[in-house]
Amino acid sequence: MAKKRSRYESDTRSPLDMTSMIDVVFLLLIFFMCATKFKIPEGQLRSWLPRDRGNESTSPVITKGCRITLTVEEGTGRIQCWADEFSVPESSEMGEFEQHRGLPGPDLVALEEHIRLRKETYVGLGDKGLPVVIDFSKETPFKYVVDVLDICTRLEIADLGFAQPEIPLE
Amino acid sequence: MEMHKYVKQDAGVEMDMTPMIDIVFLLIIFFMIVTELSNLDIEELVLPVASSADLQVPAPETREIKINVVIAPTQAGAESGAGLIKISGQAYNKAELIDKLRFEAEAWGKYEPNPTKPDQQDSLLEVLVRADQGVNAGHIHEIYEACKQAKIYRVRIAALNQRLEKAYE
């Protein structure tokens, strides 16, 4: 026989109202999802160090390699760029970084064209092609070093090096 | 007069909200922790842009150290390209950086013989240089020298690829 339900049994239970808490929790969740800054995927340029220091690493050459020199003019802070003996003119376009500095950078199109011509006319005995050395003064903004590195990577320069201040041999 | 039909209240099935609330709380905790942890070894800086920079995923058996070069704070907002070399939030000078890289290379313990000097071992540890675009490039010389001293040759430079960046805008 079924037990008869008390008249007051169901009325004494006070159900907890979860609605407001769920609302708050959802708002928190949405806040954190919106506030989370997603990481921008970063690219990488490979610049492995030479492992044959002290040995002759370059193959015999008939024509000279290309040397890119970046310096900062004392006083004005202007970037001076040479590709071999060619003085790279200043760019007429001011990027975001140049506007921040208030000074134009080197004309990267002219620089790329010079390296491309050197690569095409280079005659060497090795299979690596035109050797390019990037020589920069320590005050040069890092952006311009990466710009030159970027051009060389784009032109598929295999023999690429940074001129490094002399380290005493061990 | 129309009579309202009696609907039995007890016939409905109550939804148990407890697991859903548990999951939502776990999600909140996850987002809070991830937001903090992901910034530990990456400093906030403006990377240079290089269109030829590739998105390279390090191989699972390799280990990578991120060296950040941020613009050193200057007084009264003076513009300066002087940088500060930081690894996992800690600043290092030139001598300390050599010691740190040597220690990390030894702790990792994976070497390969040098192709031209078979008696010399080169570390397989990889270094990623994340430098602000406005920082003095002389710091790169310091990092390369430290890597050379620690017999690390696998060095990469971080740069933003506009193509990749635009894809996520």
**Main beta sheet strand tally, sense and closure of chain B:** 6 strands, mixed
The shape of chain A, in one word, is elongated
Radius of gyration of chain A: 32 Å
Radius of gyration of chain B equals 26 Å
State the order of secondary-structure elements of chain A, H for helix, E for strand: HHEEEEHHEHE
How many beta-strand runs of chain A? 6
Strand order of the largest sheet of chain A: 4-3-2-5-6
Tally of contiguous helical segments of chain B: 4
Instruction: Give the tally of β-strands of chain B.
Output: 6
Relative strand content of chain B = 15-25%
Please render the helix and strand layout as text.
The complex is a heterodimer of chains A (170) and B (169).
Chain A: H1 9-12, H2 19-35, E1 43-46, E2 66-72, E3 79-83, E4 86-88, H3 96-101, H4 108-121, E5 131-136, H5 142-154, E6 159-162
Parallel strand pairs in A: 2-5, 5-6
Antiparallel strand pairs in A: 2-3, 3-4
Helix pairs in contact in A: 4-5
Chain B: H1 18-37, E1 64-71, E2 83-87, E3 90-92, H2 94-108, E4 111-113, E5 121-131, H3 138-149, E6 152-159, H4 162-167
Parallel strand pairs in B: 1-5, 5-6
Antiparallel strand pairs in B: 1-2, 2-3, 4-5
Helix pairs in contact in B: 2-3
